[in-house]
């Protein structure tokens, strides 16, 4: 089935672009109903506009009261009848109004293998710790930051001699493959949650 997506961003929007590309090439059965940014200057808004996708940017004044911002976002997404809220480099915490409107339907991408290295500086922290393997996690967002049920993970081996920029580039390459893939699973209704709140991806029919 065709799923309706709202994509929330804060920056350059490379993962947004990967999703746009997947939709345009026909490998992802989805429509992007809105791209919403926490920063009016985010380059991802230009990517969305060039693809003919409606955009919206919220100002710092709106975000001064997180509850008000959350209610504005929830209202906008409900009005567009979206199925999934896709966080793609969105640097604000999703609040209870959005979570209540879209239970188990807010999806987040994290540049580490959760539960390791949660938070906004996961790549740098993993690099500084000297891990030999890190990776990418796609999970359901909930009220606990970076603690929601895990849908998919993919490892990235850290090669000797890499800089943190090299690691970041490798992480992004995997993100751009994994995020559209998970959205394809959702479109095919293959993502199921059990009674314990764990996610299982069923085989394709």
From TrEMBL:
SUPFAM superfamilies: Formyltransferase
Pfam families per UniProt: Formyl_trans_N
One cellular-component annotation, GO: cytosol
Signal peptide: none
Marked site: Raises pKa of active site His: 146
Source domain of life: Bacteria
Residues that hold (6R)-10-formyltetrahydrofolate according to the record: 60, 108
Family label: Belongs to the GART family.
Stated role: Catalyzes the transfer of a formyl group from 10-formyltetrahydrofolate to 5-phospho-ribosyl-glycinamide (GAR), producing 5-phospho-ribosyl-N-formylglycinamide (FGAR) and tetrahydrofolate.
PANTHER family linked: PHOSPHORIBOSYLGLYCINAMIDE FORMYLTRANSFERASE
Protein name (record): Phosphoribosylglycinamide formyltransferase
Organism, scientific name: Granulimonas faecalis
This protein's encoding gene: purN
């Amino acid at each position: 089935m065709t799923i309706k997506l709202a994509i929330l961003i804060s920056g350059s929007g490379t993962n947004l672009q990967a999703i746009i590309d997947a939709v345009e090439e026909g490998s992802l059965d989805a429509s992007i109903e809105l791209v919403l940014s926490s920063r009016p200057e985010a380059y991802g808004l230009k990517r969305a506009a060039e693809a003919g996708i409606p955009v919206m940017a919220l100002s710092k004044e709106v975000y001064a009261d997180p509850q008000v911002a959350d209610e504005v976002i929830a209202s906008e997404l409900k009005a567009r009848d979206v199925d999934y809220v896709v966080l793609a480099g969105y640097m604000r915490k999703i609040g209870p109004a959005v979570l209540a409107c879209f239970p188990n339907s807010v999806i987040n991408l994290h540049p580490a293998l959760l539960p390791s290295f949660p938070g906004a500086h996961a790549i740098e922290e993993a690099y500084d710790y000297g891990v030999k393997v890190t990776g990418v996690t796609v999970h359901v967002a909930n009220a606990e930051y970076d603690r929601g049920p895990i849908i998919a993970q993919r490892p990235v081996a850290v090669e000797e001699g890499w800089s943190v920029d090299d690691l970041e580039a490798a992480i992004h390459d995997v993100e751009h493959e994994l995020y559209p893939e998970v959205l394809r699973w959702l479109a095919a209704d293959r993502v199921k949650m059990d009674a314990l709140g764990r996610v299982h991806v069923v085989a394709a029919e």
